[in-house]
Amino acid sequence: MQLFSCHAFNSNIPPPQEYVRLAQEIIKYSGGLPLALVTVGSHLQGRSIEEWRYEFQKLRAIPHSDIQKILKISFDGLDGDTQSVFLDIACAFHGFSADEVTKTLNACGLHSESAIATLVHKCLLQSARPFLEMHDLVRDMGRELVRMESPQEPGKRSRLFIPQEVREVLQGNKGSEKVEVLMVDPRALKGVNLSTKAFKKMKNLRVLKIDNLYISGKLELLSKDLRWLSWKRCPLKYIPSNFPAEKLVVLNLRGSNIQEFGLNMQCCSLKEMNLSDCKRLRRTPNFNGLQSLETLWLGGCSSLMEIHQSIGNLDRLIYLNLSGCRKLTDLPSSICQLKSLSSLDITSCSSIRTLPVGFGDMRSLKVLLALYTGIKKLARSVEMLRDPVVLEVRDRNLEARRSFSRRRVHHIQSLSTFVSCLSLRCCGLSETDIPTDIGGLYCLEVLDLSGNHFDRLPFGFSKLRFLRFLGLNDCENLQTIPSVSNLEYLNTLSLANCKKLVKITALDNLPSIERIDMLSCSSLKNPFSEGFFSAPALAYQSRKDRNRGFKIDLQCNEIPDWCNTQVTTSSICFTMPTHKEYKFLGIILWCVFKIVNVRSSSRSQGLNFSIAGKTSSSFHWPYYEVIRTGQVQRSCVFWRSYLDTPFNGQINGGEKMELVELGEENAVKKIGIHLLYLDQQGKVTSLPAVLDHFIQMNRSQEIINGV
Q1: Fold of 67-147
Q2: What's the pTM value of the predicted model, to 2 decimals?
Q3: Which of 112, 381, 630, 654 has the greatest number of beta carbons closer than 10 A?
Q4: Domain definitions of the chain by residue range
């Protein structure tokens, strides 16, 4: 704002009140780009508010010429390849995955990896992995450069993407050899009968998007230089042999009407093929000759019954998605020959009962997703996998947990130490079915054993030093849990509905914890002492996200005695202590409440914690997050670091704090406040809050109204 004001008002002071909102919109549109702010600000200097509005409308419709010239300085300094990559992304691939764009543009003879790196370095491109994005002004500059190639005749430009211009070119057969990229918006051509003759002159077309369009005529009239084709919801039932696929690298036919392929794959250079959600596809193409394919999407092909044996010849295939292919009864044995396959997803393939005998021969397989399948005996195949990283297996019927004992997953003997994600939810496992060497999977980050039958775990967690998520929900027979202390990276501990759980051996020193769920653990006594909160309090400087607190959900209707300020009310106001010899670390808020009637979409009902008079920077917790708990009394415990809202690192002592229940629910029954400080000897201690008064209901309404 200061830079913009300096040029728009020739002053460093904030702009006049009537200009503030419009100035903020202009700055937002400019993306904070210093050169853009200087140019726009100088252009608006000395003008009335009405002139500002008019100029801003023009700015948004047609980029200001001076901004274009300034931004074009960076563009002009690029080599030819990088300029082409920039224009392709600006006109066609904004928001696309970097991998897909790289494959496509490399096939066009462009050195896209180095070009993208250069564009990111020059701030002409934002690499928000895995996607490529441009700021609006930068993107518009690129599109304006393309428009200037032929201002009056769009059909003679290199890239066409404006819906009305695309419509005029196609309806009037005004295309030319100049056109390399064509992005068609189906809404602009609704009701229009298109013929392939409209594309006949576009012999150099390499990127084409014609989603949801019906095109009559001979497909061989399409450019033979096509590298990227998106024809989602294609109405064709049959892909003919004359389909121009010789140079295609990416083919997206998602959601199409296709039933059969007549295309000869031996002449293709495809690296990515997407046939997802082709509901009428019953068998895959013959893959013979398709040596370059790396990614194959077949998820959601609900009629698919047969995968051609030639799939085993795809030596470069890395990713295969078959999720939701419910009529697929087995995988071809040749799939075991896929030496490069890294990821296989057969989630919701409910008719698949077994995996091929040679499944473990896939030496590169790192990710196997087999959730909700009909597989009963997975283990022997799993054991043969050399180095799986992600393994997810789950029974398809989450409600019928009692029947699992008759269809239990085969006893698992061993797992690779390189597994990072292991999910065996609702597999009917008892303690004898669980491999004891899980405790030695030192790369494990996610472990989910929810919904199983064991009453104890036959392994410890001490060696799982990278564990971030531990899920044991709905383990209704579980009685004890080994110590989860000193797990440096543990973020989430989920134990909901473990009704027989009576003991957690130890629960200390979890500096990265953000969520603990112990709801409906009706046999478990409150395991949290004051010392439990000391580790996160002291570890804020080493935490990856320093200003994140954590939350505990607990089946408990009493506040522990160690919590030194307790009241029976729904809203309170208190003053922070003033002690220069102590450093404030954070606060424990312990609330006992009873949820009765909360609308699922209501954010107005909940708790609001703020510094009095500063509700714009407050911590708000909406009640709709816990609707499932019904009318049972429970505790919700919040730890807020001094860097969290509402403190934001600005607490010096003497500040008045408000904890207010919003709405008419009156759900909060008791409140506990416990303030933690660091003394001069480096020890954590607590100081009592100075309780001022209880807040009346009208204050709650004021906060809702933003007062």
Answers
A1: Arc Repressor Mutant, subunit A (1.10.10)
A2: 0.63
A3: 112
A4: 2-61, 67-147, 231-375, 380-525, 550-704
Length of the chain: 707
Question: Is the CB of residue 369 less than 8 Å from the CB of residue 344?
Answer: yes
Whole-number pLDDT of residue 189:
87
The set of residues, in sequence order, having a beta carbon less than 8 Å from that of 127 and lying 6+ positions away, is 98, 116, 120, 133
| Local confidence band at 68 (pLDDT 50, 70, 90 cut-offs) | confident
CA atoms of 340 and 327, how far apart (whole Å): 26
What residues contact 29, with CB distance under 8 A and at least 6 apart?
Answer: 56, 59, 60, 136, 137
Strand pairing of 606-611 and 295-297? unpaired
Q: Based on the number of CB atoms within 10 Å of its own CB, is 300 exposed (0-12), middle (13-18) or buried (19 or more)?
A: buried
Residue bearing the bigger pLDDT, 191 or 323: 323
Distance CA 537, CA 639 (A): 9
What CA–CA distance (Å, rounded) separates 621 from 130?
Answer: 31
Largest CA distance in the chain: 84
Number of H helices and E strands in the chain, helices first, is 13, 35
Which of the 8 DSSP states describes residue 15? P
Assign domain 380-525 to its CATH architecture.
Answer: Alpha-Beta Horseshoe (3.80)
CATH topology of domain 231-375: 3.80.10
- Phi (first) and psi of residue 469, to 5 degrees: -130, 130
CA-based R_g, the chain, Å: 31
Report the interhelical angle of 17-30 vs 136-147 (nearest 10°). Answer: 60
Using the predicted structure, report yes or no on whether residue 153 has a pLDDT greater than 80.
yes
Any idea what DSSP says for residue 506?
Answer: -
- Looking at residue 477, its pLDDT comes to 94
User: Do 394 and 422 contact (CB within 8 A), yes or no?
Assistant: no
Could you read off the pLDDT of 502-516 as tens digits, one per residue? 988 888 888 888 899
Residue 308 identity (one-letter amino acid):
H
> Which residue type is seen at 620?
H
Virtual torsion, Cα 376, 361, 273, 241, nearest 10 deg:
-110
End-to-end CA distance of the chain: 26
Q: What is the DSSP string of 338-369?
A: -TT--EEE-TT-TT-----TTGGG-TT--EEE
For residue 118, the model assigns a pLDDT of 86
Residue 330 or residue 701, greater confidence: 330
pLDDT tens for residues 567-620? 998 888 999 998 888 988 889 999 998 765 555 445 567 788 888 877 556 788
Whether the domain at 231-375 and the domain at 380-525 fall into the same CATH topology: yes
Under 8 Å CB-to-CB from 48, ≥6 apart: which residues? none
